[in-house]
Amino acid sequence: MFGEAGPIGGVALTIDGNVKSQRIVNSFSLNWSPVAKIGDEYQSRSEVSIFWGTRYVFDKFGADDLKGLSNLFGTDLKYDIGKGIDLGFSGSLRQNPKGSSFSWSGGPTVGIAAMKNGYVSIGYNVAGFSDRDYDASRYTRSGPFVTLRMKFDQGLLAGLGLGR
Predict the structure, then answer these.
(1) How many Cβ atoms from other residues are within 10 Å of residue 1's Cβ?
(2) Quick one: pLDDT at residue 16?
(3) Residue predicted with more confidence, 125 or 160
(4) For residues 106 and 92, is the Cβ–Cβ distance under 8 A?
(5) How many Å separate Cα 130 from the centre of its chain?
(6) Do 118 and 146 contact (CB within 8 A), yes or no?
C-alpha cells in the first residue's frame, strides 16, 4: 500500500496503471597524451581525458509526463611518477542545461600498470552521486573504488587461438 515503509525502510513506491520510461543516452570520450623529447627519446608522462555524456529522458506515469535533458562532464588528469605508476585526479559534474541542479564527484587516484595491456586504478571520491546511465563509463559514487582496464585486440585474440 502506498505510503507505508518498504522492506528496507523509507516509503514504498507503488505504481498502478500506465507507466512508460524511455531515454536517449550518448557519450563522447577524448584522451590526449602530450609527448616531449627528453634527451634522445620521446616520452609521454601525462594524460588528459575528457568525457561528455548527454541524456534525454521522457517518462510517463499515468497522466503525468516527465521530460528532461541532462549532461555529465568529466575529466581525468594523470602524471607518471615512475615505471608503471601514476598519480591523478578524477572529477565529474552532472547538471541540467538550465543549471538549476547539479551533482559532482571527484578525488585523487593512483594508477598501476600491473601487467602488459592491463591497468588498475585505485581512488577515493570525496563526494559523489549515482547515475545508472553512466556508471559503466565513469565511477561517480563517493568513497573508495578500484577499476581494472584491459586492452583486447586482434593480437590478444590470436594468442588465445581465437584469431584467423
Answers:
(1) 5
(2) 64
(3) 125
(4) yes
(5) 10
(6) no
Residue 126: is its pLDDT beyond 90?
Answer: yes
pLDDT digits 0-9 by tens, 21-34: 788 889 999 999 88
Model confidence, pTM: 0.73
Burial label for 75, CB within 10 Å (0-12, 13-18, 19+), is: middle
Judged against a pLDDT cut of 90, whether residue 160 lies above it is answered with no
Identify whether the C-beta of residue 90 lies closer than 8 Å to the C-beta of residue 96. Answer: no
SS3 98: coil
CA distances from 121 to 87, 90, 113, 136 (A): 10, 11, 9, 15
> For position 29, what pLDDT does the model report?
92
DSSP 34-51: --EEETTEEE--EEEEEE
Report the distance separating Cα 144 and Cα 105, nearest Å.
Answer: 12
How many CB atoms neighbour CB 129 within 10 A?
A: 16
